[in-house]
Amino acid sequence: MLQTLSPLELALLGTGFTFFMTAVGAATVFFIRGTINPKTQQAFLGFAAGVMIAASVWSLLIPAIDMAEDQGMQGWLPAAGGFVLGGAFLFVLDKLLPHLHPGSKQPEGLSSSLRRTTMLVFAVTLHNIPEGMAVGLAFGLAAVEQSPAGLAAAFSLAIGMGLQNFPEGAAISLPLHREGCSKGKSFVYGALSGFTEPIAGVIGVLLAVTIRGIMPWMLAFAAGAMIYVVVEELIPESQSQTGQHSHQGTIGAMTGFLIMMILDVALG
Fold first, then answer.
1. Mean pLDDT across the stretch 75-84?
2. H or E element in which residue 219 lies
3. What pLDDT does 98 receive?
4. CB within 8 A of 238, min separation 6: which ones?
5. Which of 140-149, 159-168, 196-205 has the lowest mean pLDDT?
6. What are phi and psi of 5, to 5 degrees?
7. What is the average pLDDT across 67-91?
8. How far apart are CA 208 and CA 60, in angstroms?
9. Is it the case that residue 251 has pLDDT exceeding 90?
């Protein structure tokens, strides 16, 4: 049945799941009092980084290289070019979009009069753009190629992203509640921070399916954007929550990488 769905429908299915996991994570604001233990937060951030690194390699860059070679191109060219463009895209967004990372006092991006709560939501939204694009493209690629193995790989990517979206949802709703938002508003804002994933996934699929030759570029673009997020934010934050070197962040990153690698290789 799944193979009868269009690339757009499959992309919505996959990114809908990751959005749902963000909402589930945001719902922890109703059950957790106070703040998350810093070491636990380090482990969660490291886990998200590991998942995104593994997904960038096995789910995005390797398929981009293989697909480019099937189209008669040099495999490394769209992989490298798309990777650079994806990183540059997130760099520009990071410089332009006013956002505030949980635990930070000074916002980043252009100066703005936006409320701190709004900028906290924008910070997680930056993460979700490449994640949604990656999941959407994986399902779109599977639908275009009519590949059961590709569909299984897309599902593994959605599962991996969903797992790391759970702590991301909590990472936005809990700080929002500490900033003075009610639990209900904190949950809604935390959940909505993940709504960019279906949007980014749909845009990516529509572009790639309309101009099929750019699919390898789009896959590598999503990989570059995710690696930018990992290196710029997730890894530094996973090592600095307690002001000292973090074994929890390192173990979390290795665990996330291992789980995503197993999911992709075993299922894909």
1. 94
2. helix 215-229
3. 79
4. 42, 43, 45, 46, 49, 246, 248, 249, 250, 252, 253
5. 140-149
6. -75, 150
7. 91
8. 14
9. yes
Contact 193, 166 (CB under 8 A): no
pLDDT of residue 34: 65
Main-chain phi, psi angles of 33, to 5 degrees: -100, 140
Residue that the structure tokens 């070491």 belong to: 39
d(CA 265, CA 27): 32
When pLDDT is averaged across residues 6-11 and rounded to a whole number, the result is 82
The 10 Å Cβ neighbour count of residue 173 is 32
Residue whose pair of structure tokens reads 């934010």 in the numeric block? 233
Q: How far apart are the first and last CA of the chain?
A: 18
**Helix extents (H) in 5-115:** 7-26, 38-54, 62-70, 76-96
**For the chain, the helix, strand and coil percentages under 3-state DSSP, each to the nearest 5:** 80, 0, 20
The dihedral of CA 162, 163, 164, 166: what is its sign? Answer: positive
Say how far apart CA 113 and CA 94 lie, in whole Å: 17
Q: What is the largest CA-CA distance in the chain?
A: 57
pTM: 0.86
Nearest-angstrom CA–CA distance, 142 and 10:
9
5-14, 28-37, 58-67, 165-174: segment of lowest average pLDDT: 28-37
Q: Quick check: 201 and 128 in contact, CB under 8 A?
A: no
